[in-house]
C-alpha cells in the first residue's frame, strides 16, 4: 500500500505537532521492495506531495525480485513505479539496491543529497555556507558589538559573525584568507574557535583563532569597516597538533583603556618530555601600528 503510506506520512509527519517548522525543507524517503497494491492512487498522492512542496527520495530494493528470479520486465516495471514517485530530477532522487543489506552502501550518498537541500550552493552538492555554522561556539563582547565564532561555517573553515548597532556582518569564506599565503591551506581550519578584541588608539582590532589551520593553527588579526574585513596580521603556530589559537585573551596591563598584550594558548603543545604540556604565547601590542610582537 505504497500510496497509502505516502499519503499518511504527508498528512501526519509534516505538522507543527510533530516538529515541523515554517520555511524548513520537507523531505520524504520512500523505501519499498515491491510494486504497490494501490497504484491507482499514486498520481493523486504524488500531486498532493508536490503541492505541499515535499521533496521525495525513492529507494527500490530488488532483493525479493532477485531471490525469486523475477523477469526483467517485472523488475523494470517496479523500478519505473519508484522513479515516478521520486522528485525531479529523478537521477538525484532515485536509488535502487540489489538487496536489503546493500542499503548501507547508499547511506552517505543519500545523506549528502538531503543535507544539500538546505545548502546555499544548490545543485545537489554537499557544500555549506552557514547552515551548520554553530554560531556562538565562542563569544566575546567588544566595544563595537558582539563577536560570535562559527566554526562550522563554510564546511568547517569557519568564520566570525559580528552583531553591531548597524546590523549583522557575516564574513565570506575568503575574507579570512591570508593574502601572503598562496597555499591557502584553510580546509577545516575552525576559524572562530576563539574570539577576542583589542583596543588601540587607532581603533578596534578583532582577533580569532583557527587551531586546525594547516594542522599547526593560526591566529588572525583584522579590522572591520562596515562589512569590509581587512586582515592586518596572522600569527602562526609552530607545532602540528598543538591547537595553537584555541584559547585567546587580551589584557590591559596598565589600565589605560588600551590593550597591551595578547595571550595565545596552545594546550596540546608537546614539551621536551614528549608529553602534552601546553604552551602560552605572549604577544605585545604596538599601540601605534597595531602589530603584535612575540
From TrEMBL:
First-listed, main subcellular location of the protein, grouped into a coarse class: membrane
Biological process annotations from GO: cell adhesion mediated by integrin; cell-cell adhesion; cell-matrix adhesion; integrin-mediated signaling pathway
InterPro entries with a match to the protein in the record: FG-GAP, Int_alpha_beta-p, Integrin_alpha, Integrin_alpha_N, VWF_A, vWFA_dom_sf
UniProt keywords, alphabetically: Calcium, Cell adhesion, Glycoprotein, Integrin, Membrane, Metal-binding, Receptor, Repeat, Signal, Transmembrane
Keyword Phosphoprotein in record: no
Repeat (FG-GAP) residue spans along the chain: 230-292
Compartment list: Membrane
Keyword DNA damage set for record: no
A GO cellular-component term linked to this record: integrin complex
Recorded topology in the membrane: Single-pass type I membrane protein
Domain of life: Eukaryota
A Gene Ontology molecular function term of the record: integrin binding
Domain named VWFA: residues: 1-110
Pfam families membership: FG-GAP (PF01839), VWA (PF00092)
Family that this chain belongs to: Belongs to the integrin alpha chain family.
Name of this chain's protein: VWFA domain-containing protein
Species, as recorded: Oncorhynchus mykiss
Amino acid at each position: 500500500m505504497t500510496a497509502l503510506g505516502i499519503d499518511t506520512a504527508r498528512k501526519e509527519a509534516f505538522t507543527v505537532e510533530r516538529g515541523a517548522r515554517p520555511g524548513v525543507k520537507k523531505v520524504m524517503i520512500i523505501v519499498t521492495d515491491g510494486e504497490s497494491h494501490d497504484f491507482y492512487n499514486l498520481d493523486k498522492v504524488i500531486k498532493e506531495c508536490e503541492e505541499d512542496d515535499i521533496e521525495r527520495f525513492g529507494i527500490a530494493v530488488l532483493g525479493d525480485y532477485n531471490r525469486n528470479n523475477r523477469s526483467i520486465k517485472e523488475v523494470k516495471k517496479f523500478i519505473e513505479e519508484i522513479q515516478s514517485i521520486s522528485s525531479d530530477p529523478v537521477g538525484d532522487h532515485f536509488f535502487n539496491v540489489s538487496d536489503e543489506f546493500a542499503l548501507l552502501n547508499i547511506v552517505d550518498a543519500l545523506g549528502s543529497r538531503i543535507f544539500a537541500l538546505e545548502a546555499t550552493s544548490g545543485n545537489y552538492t554537499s557544500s555549506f555556507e552557514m547552515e551548520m555554522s554553530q554560531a556562538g561556539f565562542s563569544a566575546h563582547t567588544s566595544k563595537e558589538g558582539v563577536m560570535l565564532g562559527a566554526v562550522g561555517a563554510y564546511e568547517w573553515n569557519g568564520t566570525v559573525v559580528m552583531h553591531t548597532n548597524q546590523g549583522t556582518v557575516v564574513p565570506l569564506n575568503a575574507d579570512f584568507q591570508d593574502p601572503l599565503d598562496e597555499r591557502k591551506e584553510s580546509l577545516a581550519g575552525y576559524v572562530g574557535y576563539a574570539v577576542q578584541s583589542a583596543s588601540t588608539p587607532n581603533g578596534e582590532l578583532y582577533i580569532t583563532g583557527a587551531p586546525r589551520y594547516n594542522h599547526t593553527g593560526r591566529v588572525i588579526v583584522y579590522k572591520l569597516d562596515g562589512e569590509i574585513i581587512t586582515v592586518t596580521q596572522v600569527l602562526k603556530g609552530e607545532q602540528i597538533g598543538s591547537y595553537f589559537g584555541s584559547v585567546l585573551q587580551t589584557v590591559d596591563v596598565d589600565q589605560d583603556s588600551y590593550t597591551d598584550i595578547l595571550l595565545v594558548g596552545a594546550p596540546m603543545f608537546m614539551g621536551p618530555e614528549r608529553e602534552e604540556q601546553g604552551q602560552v604565547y605572549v604577544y605585545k601590542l604596538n599601540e601605534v601600528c597595531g602589530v603584535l610582537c612575540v
